[in-house]
């Protein structure tokens, strides 16, 4: 694992730095987000057969009809989440391969990550442990339920698109908290940033996106 972490050729530190330069060109300005993206080895979160493509700006398959989001989307969603400053507790809906989880864990105090597909959650949990990332709690559950036992959250980030934002997630957001997630049906999805105020919710539409659909239930 140590040798794989170091990377070589298309998985080297230099390749990650080129990715970060591209993110800057695409409008990502948060220096902390860019620094964490530079130090996090995205290639270990994909199958070895796809490692050479890990730093391309594309989503890649991770099995179970799921994908690892393209680097730009990971950076953009993280930047939007942290726009108002540092966060304590953050809820992540859709652990997936654990890449976004790793990025968040290096930027906030505590991540609570929910995944509906058990093998994905186990693989991500084991990998993050190997990477010495230990400020993440994992739960195998329907993402639409959130994680009420640990609410309220200062931030919520979701990596799948529902037709509309689940009410349970809105209610688990702290006043002043930020929710970032894609919303809409396939082909008509947009990225939203929602801030909870004393009087309700302010919903800002950011840009068109393409995500896997937000599914109910759990899978073993």
Under the CATH scheme, the architecture of one domain is 3-Layer(aba) Sandwich
Low-confidence residue ranges:
none
CATH C-level of one domain: Alpha Beta
Biggest β-sheet strands, sense, barrel: 7 strands, mixed
Annotated CATH homologous superfamily of one domain: Vaccinia Virus protein VP39
**Strand order in the largest sheet:** 5-4-3-6-7-8-9
The secondary-structure element order is HHHEEHEHEHEEHEEE
Give the overall shape, derived from the CA principal axes: globular
Structural class: alpha/beta
Helical residues, percent: 25-40%
CATH topology of one domain, by name, is Rossmann fold
Beginning-to-end CA distance, first to last residue: 27 Å
- Count of individual beta strands: 9
Mean pLDDT: 93
| Strand fraction | 25-35%
Note the total helix count.
Answer: 7
Our Rg estimate from Cα atoms comes to 16 Å
């Amino acid at each position: 694992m140590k040798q794989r972490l170091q990377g070589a050729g298309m998985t080297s530190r230099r390749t990650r730095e080129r990715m970060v330069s591209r993110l800057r060109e695409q409008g990502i300005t948060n220096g902390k987000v860019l620094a964490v993206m530079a130090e996090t080895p995205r290639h270990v979160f994909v199958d070895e057969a796809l490692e050479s493509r890990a730093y391309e700006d594309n989503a890649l398959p991770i099995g179970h009809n799921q994908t690892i989001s393209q680097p730009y989307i990971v950076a953009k969603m993280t930047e939007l989440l942290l726009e108002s400053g540092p966060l304590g507790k953050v809820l992540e809906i859709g652990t997936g391969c654990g890449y976004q989880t790793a990025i968040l864990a290096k930027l906030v105090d505590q991540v609570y990550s929910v995944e509906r597909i058990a093998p994905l959650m186990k693989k991500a949990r084991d990998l993050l442990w190997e990477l010495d990332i230990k400020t993440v709690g994992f739960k195998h559950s329907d993402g639409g339920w959130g994680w009420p036992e640990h609410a309220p959250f200062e931030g919520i980030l979701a990596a799948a698109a529902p037709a509309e934002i689940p009410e349970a997630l809105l209610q688990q957001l702290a006043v002043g908290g930020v929710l970032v997630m894609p919303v809409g049906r396939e082909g008509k999805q947009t990225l939203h940033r929602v801030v909870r105020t004393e009087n309700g919710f302010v919903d800002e539409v950011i840009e068109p996106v393409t995500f896997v659909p937000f599914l109910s239930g759990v899978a073993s």
